Amino acid sequence: MGRREHSVQLLVVGIFDVIQGLVALFRADVYVVGASGLVLSTDWTTGGAGRSRGAR
Q1: What is d(CA 30, CA 24) in angstroms, rounded to the nearest whole number?
Q2: Per-residue pLDDT tens for 33-45?
Q3: Is the pTM of this model over 0.70?
Q4: CB 26 within 8 A of CB 20
Q5: How many domains does the chain have?
Q6: Which domain holds residue 43?
Q7: Where are the alpha helices (DSSP H) in the chain?
Q8: Going by C-beta distance under 8 Å and a sequence separation of 6 or more, which residues neighbour residue 9?
Q9: Helix (H, G, I), strand (E, B), or coil: what is residue 12?
Protein backbone atom coordinates (compact mmCIF):
# COMPACT_ATOMS: atom_id res chain seq x y z
CA MET A 1 0.00 0.00 0.00
CA GLY A 2 1.19 3.49 -0.78
CA ARG A 3 0.89 6.65 1.21
CA ARG A 4 -2.47 7.53 -0.31
CA GLU A 5 -4.04 4.23 0.76
CA HIS A 6 -2.68 4.62 4.29
CA SER A 7 -4.05 8.14 4.48
CA VAL A 8 -7.49 6.97 3.39
CA GLN A 9 -7.39 4.12 5.90
CA LEU A 10 -6.50 6.49 8.75
CA LEU A 11 -9.23 8.89 7.67
CA VAL A 12 -11.88 6.15 7.63
CA VAL A 13 -10.83 4.84 11.06
CA GLY A 14 -10.84 8.41 12.41
CA ILE A 15 -14.36 9.01 11.10
CA PHE A 16 -15.57 5.83 12.80
CA ASP A 17 -13.91 6.95 16.06
CA VAL A 18 -15.63 10.33 15.90
CA ILE A 19 -19.01 8.70 15.27
CA GLN A 20 -18.46 6.29 18.16
CA GLY A 21 -17.47 9.17 20.45
CA LEU A 22 -20.56 11.18 19.55
CA VAL A 23 -22.78 8.17 20.14
CA ALA A 24 -21.17 7.68 23.56
CA LEU A 25 -21.80 11.34 24.44
CA PHE A 26 -25.38 11.63 23.29
CA ARG A 27 -26.81 8.14 23.92
CA ALA A 28 -26.30 7.11 27.53
CA ASP A 29 -27.86 3.67 27.01
CA VAL A 30 -25.22 2.48 24.51
CA TYR A 31 -22.17 2.39 26.81
CA VAL A 32 -23.04 1.22 30.30
CA VAL A 33 -20.58 1.80 33.17
CA GLY A 34 -20.36 -0.69 36.05
CA ALA A 35 -21.18 -0.01 39.68
CA SER A 36 -17.60 1.07 40.48
CA GLY A 37 -17.83 3.87 37.93
CA LEU A 38 -14.85 2.61 35.93
CA VAL A 39 -14.90 0.93 32.55
CA LEU A 40 -11.73 -1.03 33.38
CA SER A 41 -11.00 -2.28 36.85
CA THR A 42 -7.26 -2.04 37.55
CA ASP A 43 -5.08 -2.04 40.61
CA TRP A 44 -2.60 0.84 40.24
CA THR A 45 -0.65 -0.13 43.37
CA THR A 46 1.19 -3.05 41.75
CA GLY A 47 4.07 -2.77 39.31
CA GLY A 48 5.02 0.41 37.56
CA ALA A 49 6.89 2.97 39.67
CA GLY A 50 7.90 0.43 42.30
CA ARG A 51 9.72 -1.67 39.73
CA SER A 52 11.23 1.07 37.58
CA ARG A 53 14.51 1.22 39.54
CA GLY A 54 15.42 -2.37 38.76
CA ALA A 55 15.95 -5.40 40.95
CA ARG A 56 18.31 -5.05 43.90
Answers
A1: 7
A2: 777 776 666 666 6
A3: no
A4: no
A5: 1
A6: 3-51
A7: 3-26
A8: 1
A9: helix
Q: 32 in a domain, yes or no?
A: yes
How many Cα neighbours within 13 Å face the side chain of 1? 8
In a domain, 19, yes or no: yes
Q: Is residue 34 in a domain?
A: yes
Burial 17-34 (b: 16+ CB within 10 A, else e): eeeeeeeeeeeeeeeeee
Q: What is the dihedral of CA 22, 24, 30, 31, to 10 degrees?
A: 160
- Which pairs with CB-CB distance under 8 Å and at least 24 residues apart come from 11-17? none
